[in-house]
Known about the structure:
Elements (H helix, E strand, L loop, with lengths): L4 E7 L6 H8 L5 E7 L14 H10 L5 E6 L8 H16 L4 E6 L2 E3 L2 H9 L13 E13 L4 E4 L3 E7 L4 E3 L2 E2 L2 E11 L6 H10 L10 H7 L22 E4 L4 H10 L7 H14 L4
Parallel strand pairs: 1-2, 1-4, 2-3, 6-11
Antiparallel strand pairs: 4-8, 5-11, 6-7, 6-8, 7-12, 9-10
Protein name: Glycosyl transferase family 2
Amino acid sequence: MKGKIQVGYLVSYDYELLKNALPTTYKDADTIFLAIDINRNTWNGGSFTIDDSFFEWLNAFDVDKKVVIYEDDFYVPSLTTMECEIRERKMLSEKMGIGNWLIQIDCDEYFVDFKKFVSDLRKYDSYLESPLKKTIQVAAYWIILYKYTPNGILYVDKPAKAIFATNNPEYIVGRRVKGQVIYTNNIVLHESLSRSEEELRFKFENWGHNKETNKEFLNKWIAINENNYKEYKDLYYIEPERWKKLGYFPTKDMTAIKNIVEKSRRLNMSEAKLAYKNSEQWFKFLLK
């Protein structure tokens, strides 16, 4: 029997964004787990609350009863924020069940076509038979949503690799494991930075990269708008040169943005490039 499609979300201070994320995966997932700190602590020891209206929305949305709320103590004061993140992800994956496809998504990540991603995963179901013997990780590509403007959304003008699924959750950094990467032509809109200044400051204090964030990032982010964004470059929050420039979606509607992305050759990976990257990975791990 082939493994299940198990989806896990880490739910914290940005829980409201799950209302955008959950509908993109709900139909094609077997089970969806929501990991929530039982004491409402962040990985840095900060606190957050979840309004009762969110759970009312969730109960109404979950018509097929696929959602499992997994509450546990995910904050350990003696660990760094990244160590807390890795620990929570491992605990969540164990709850989801080894032997299944373990797909972890954040509340601010919206798949353009999750059904296609699942179809791509199913090509590699053989890796679920003995998951601890051969670890693999499956990547899609982020389109990073950088900042809301009065009339649209600025985004990083180059897709970025992101790991979403594995058969063996021995995470070393975030969702990454030590194992072969399988690249797929799937796009995920990542609302990582497109928030209010207050929300972004809170995130930078409490997420897994809080010790790595470039201190000059926020000043540049505040200054950029839809009229001057072409004047700025080197925009990444850790190593600035990794994000060279921004693009602009002239709408804030996520469905409209998904349609733009699907039709854009520049924002999708070519089959030739995917084939090259996958063959490179295959040879790299051939004898491992």
